[in-house]
Automatic annotation (TrEMBL):
<feature type="repeat" description="ANK">
    <location>
        <begin position="84"/>
        <end position="112"/>
    </location>
</feature>
<protein>
    <submittedName>
        <fullName>Uncharacterized protein</fullName>
    </submittedName>
</protein>
<dbReference type="InterPro" id="IPR036770">
    <property type="entry name" value="Ankyrin_rpt-contain_sf"/>
</dbReference>
<feature type="repeat" description="ANK">
    <location>
        <begin position="51"/>
        <end position="83"/>
    </location>
</feature>
<dbReference type="Pfam" id="PF12796">
    <property type="entry name" value="Ank_2"/>
</dbReference>
<dbReference type="InterPro" id="IPR002110">
    <property type="entry name" value="Ankyrin_rpt"/>
</dbReference>
<keyword id="KW-0677">Repeat</keyword>
<keyword id="KW-0040">ANK repeat</keyword>
Length: 139
């Protein structure tokens, strides 16, 4: 008998990938009860999926304001861009989630980062309330 891993079970790498996927799914679904304890145990707050989306990006894009607040409190980078150069605030401007925009702005998110920026996105999609929060008026 040897000390190698069971070939029928998941490898350590597969287990880590599965855990990361579950964390990203929890962020997308707004499942703070599943996600936050993992972060509190040391999982990286700025973990990224294959497209560069962080838990904060996914939570913000899906409108989970309280989870966004909790992720920020645990060190999530409010300006972390995905692989397409999009920021969480730009995603929120696209979706029109004013409460999430407020949380991100309170946490110091930069409305002029990214391509397109949150300011540009809010203007293009005529998100007057978000533009007002950014200190801009619709063009």
């Amino acid at each position: 008998m040897n000390d190698t891993a069971d070939p029928t079970g998941p490898s350590e790498d597969e287990a880590v990938i599965a855990l990361a996927a579950s964390m990203l799914d929890a962020a997308r679904q707004g499942d703070a009860a599943a996600l936050l304890p993992l972060l509190d145990q040391g999982a990286p707050a700025n973990l990224r999926d294959s497209a560069g989306n962080s838990p904060l990006m996914l939570a913000a894009y899906h409108g989970h304001a309280e989870l966004v607040r909790e992720l920020v409190a645990r060190g999530a980078d409010v300006d972390l861009q995905n692989d397409r150069g999009q920021t969480p605030l730009a995603g929120v401007a696209f979706k029109g989630f004013t409460e999430v925009a407020s949380v991100l702005l309170e946490a110091g998110a930069d409305p002029d980062l990214g391509v397109p920026s949150a300011r540009e996105t809010a203007g293009y999609f005529e998100r007057a309330e978000i533009l007002a929060m950014l200190g801009s008026s619709p063009a």
